[in-house]
Specification:
The chain is of the alpha/beta class. The protein has one domain: Rossmann fold (3-Layer(aba) Sandwich), CATH 3.40.50. Helices cover 36% and strands 23% of the residues. β9, α6 and β10 form a beta-alpha-beta unit. α2 packs across α3 and α4 runs antiparallel to α6. It starts with 9 loop residues before the first strand and ends with a helix.
């Protein structure tokens, strides 16, 4: 059973923001540098991110970790079947992107300063990319073992002609995945800082998809090439290591000082 560890440097509190269950991690001793939404991966839950979120918060960031729909207290599904993945993966991601407006509004009212970033691991990395596309007030994004080329990565994982919908219905509204896919919305990124961390031997979310995005985005980031960063990890499969976490925090500290 997942449990919350209490850091002496960080407080945490569980509550809801517009019916979205979250855990908020607040720094106690350091000056607050800004706010971050951190998204968990497929089949995970917010409590499983306690160590990562607490560590990030201990460096001065207010961190919100929500449960995605179909995860944690919002219910469970069959995560390991191909049928469930096709039916639920992108609808879960898109709903998280839509709900981000509530979390960003909350952080913008609560934090000192104006630095708002988004981050995520695996499925959470897909979500983080979608949030950066949809919400121009988001200052930066960290994507760990996810993809900013949603459809191209999906096509690497399914057979041609396989039934994987390009349109998602949420609460009676139809959304095209291309509306959220960073690869197809490069102009909306506005050269905002992005850090992409990925294992070279990732068998769950192929690095090749992220490389396709990076190459396309590089043409849009010619004025600020330092804002687009792809770091790969040799011989690493689909894991979020402490080295990745350290690199993510170091990068967030540097970027937050520039805003």
């Amino acid at each position: 059973m997942a449990s919350l560890l209490q850091s002496q440097q960080v407080s945490n509190q569980e509550f809801e923001i517009h019916d979205v269950p979250v855990i908020e991690f607040k720094p106690l001793e350091s000056e607050e540098r800004g706010g971050i939404i951190f998204y968990h991966g497929w089949s995970s839950r917010k409590e499983n991110q306690t160590f990562r979120a607490s560590t990030i918060a201990s460096y001065g960031f207010r961190v919100l970790v929500p449960d995605a729909v179909n995860h944690g207290v919002r219910g469970e599904i069959e995560y390991d079947t191909e049928e469930s993945l096709k039916k639920n993966f992108f609808s879960t991601v898109v709903q998280s992107v839509l709900e981000a407006s509530y979390l960003l509004d909350y952080l913008s009212q609560e934090i000192t300063g104006n630095f708002l970033a988004v981050a995520g691991n695996s499925m959470g990395g897909f979500t983080a990319g979608g949030v950066l596309v949809r919400y121009p007030g988001t200052a930066a994004m960290v994507n760990v073992n996810g993809s900013c080329a949603w459809l191209k990565t999906r096509n690497m994982l399914v057979e041609e002609g396989d039934n994987f919908a390009d349109e998602i219905e949420i609460e009676g509204v139809n959304y095209q995945l291309k509306e959220f896919d960073p690869y197809y919305n490069l102009e909306k990124l506005e050269e905002r800082p992005m850090l992409l961390l990925h294992g070279e031997q990732d068998t769950s979310v192929p690095l090749a998809g992220q490389k396709i995005f990076y190459q396309a985005a590089s043409n849009r980031y010619k004025s600020f090439p330092e804002n687009l960063n792809l770091i790969t990890y040799e011989k690493l499969n689909h894991y979020f290591t402490t080295g990745m976490l350290a690199g993510m925090i170091e990068w967030l500290l540097a970027v937050s000082r520039q805003t």
